[in-house]
């Protein structure tokens, strides 16, 4: 049905960019092979129809996130995103960036996005703080999928964006 869904999104909803294997699509409920298959199908069906297909590669296991990042790069994703680890949580910015860097480095030519969703991860490191110097450690860093209700943090991120060229994808289901 992905072919039909892509056609519907493009022709009826004027959607040109998708975020695959995220939380609304229950990507974390799928096994690694299912996530790979879904990413491949979106990329195949979206070819020449969608501008960007960002693949969420976050997983409970760092090794699985790295595997998914390598796969996304190999099959032509236009971006990858990862959420913070939510079992053994990072307690500060440096720990979070170190984790993100380990995933981003597996797809060194693919734009990288941090998926900030504290209601799911319980990692409450402010994104505005995270952005300071992040491109020195993650050269492919392009922005944030910001799924939190802390609009002050989002506004400070956007203000910081006047100096950087980051993209902020905002979405809170409520």
UniProtKB/TrEMBL annotation:
Gene3D superfamilies: Aldolase class I. It is found in: Cytoplasm. Pathway: Amino-sugar metabolism; N-acetylneuraminate degradation. It comes from the Eukaryota. Keywords: Carbohydrate metabolism, Cytoplasm, Lyase, Schiff base. One of its GO terms (cellular component) is cytoplasm. Its EC number is 4.1.3.3. It holds the Pfam family DHDPS. It catalyses: aceneuramate = aldehydo-N-acetyl-D-mannosamine + pyruvate. Homotetramer. This is N-acetylneuraminate lyase. It comes from Oreotrochilus melanogaster.
């Amino acid at each position: 049905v992905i072919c039909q869904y892509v056609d519907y999104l493009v022709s009826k909803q004027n959607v040109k960019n998708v975020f695959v294997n995220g939380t609304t699509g229950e990507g974390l409920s799928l096994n690694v092979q299912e996530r790979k298959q879904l990413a491949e199908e979106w990329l195949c069906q979206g070819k020449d129809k969608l501008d960007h297909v960002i693949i969420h590669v976050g997983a409970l296991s760092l090794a699985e996130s790295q595997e998914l990042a390598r796969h996304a790069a190999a099959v032509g994703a236009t971006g990858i995103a990862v959420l913070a680890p939510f079992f053994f949580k990072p307690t500060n910015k440096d720990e979070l960036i170190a984790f993100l860097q380990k995933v981003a480095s597996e797809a060194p030519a693919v734009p990288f996005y941090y998926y900030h969703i504290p209601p799911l991860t319980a990692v409450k490191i402010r994104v505005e703080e995270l952005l300071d110097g992040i491109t020195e450690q993650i050269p492919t860093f392009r922005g944030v999928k910001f799924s939190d209700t802390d609009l002050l943090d989002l506004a400070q991120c956007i203000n910081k964006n006047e100096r950087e060229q980051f993209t902020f994808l905002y979405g809170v289901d409520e």
